[in-house]
Amino acid sequence: VVLVGARLDSATYVRMKKRAAAEVGLHSVDVALAADATQRELLAEIERLNADASVHAILVQLPLPKHIDESAVLGAIRVEKDADGFSALNIGNLCLRGGDAPLALPCTPAGCVELIRRTGTAVAGKDAVVIGRSNIVGMPVAALLQAMDATVTVCHSRTVDMPRVVARADIVVAAIGRAEFVKAEWLKPGCVVIDVGINRKDAPERKAGYKLVGDVDYEGAARVASAITPVPGGVGPMTIAMLLFNTVNLARHARGLPP
Ligand code: NAP
After folding, report:
1. Of 12, 13, 78, 216, which sits most exposed with the smallest number of CB within 10 A?
2. Does pTM top 0.70 for this prediction?
3. Is residue 176 lining ligand 1, measured as CB closer than 6 Å?
4. Is the pLDDT of residue 177 over 90?
5. How far is the centre of ligand 1, averaged over its atoms, from the C-alpha of 215 (Å)?
């Protein structure tokens, strides 16, 4: 686990990931660099971990400080150790039909799809609407749902009349980072809603002064959807579970074992 700087949210995510790894008996190694560490220093650490045969998976906690080129850093991780599934080769293999399977899938998207699977929803032929098209969530979620034979529509900041698009969805995955943006009235009754967003909302009654909410108006949507993930406690824990899953698979791959 490579952490650069002292962002509180990143430190919390790293702590949660390490705790989960310890719970299932994975050994984790910390590399903590100061916020002003240079890109060269960070790349040297990644090279060291790349070369260490006792390390099966490398996670660089994002976001990195502004002066560091994120794609250069992610690109430096050997694909065989790509715990987050973000490498161009893994993403490429996810999007291509046929050919090699990715060695690891991006954790949050894989968690979303696992949650949908566990609802028992037959995905093939269903209309899925993914709101957001980021490299780490929206785009790979859309690719995964398409690989499961859903008919996928992707919405983003230039989409016109989003309520109309969302209204036909049997499956909605919201990943935009806007508090309670998706309204209950937009949803088709009985749809499955996966809420990826993590947003702060003022809550003066709370000691912290805020609470975490998703991209979907949970209270209203829960009355319309057949299944919906809460925030917090839904996609977040699944993301960590999929990180552990990737790590075990990469260790198996290193030993020549099937996933
Ligand atoms: P991001 O990189 O900021 O991407 C946001 C996407 O949403 C973009 O595609 C953007 O469109 C679109 N968008 C933004 N505002 C919009 C609007 N008003 N209408 C329509 N589309 C809009 O965000 P991200 O990294 O994908 O993360 C999304 C959310 O998920 C955040 O709240 C983040 O904290 C959360 N998240 C949670 C987990 C987890 O483990 N639970 C993991 C990762 C992220 P354009 O492409 O047109 O700009």
Report:
1. 12
2. yes
3. yes
4. yes
5. 9
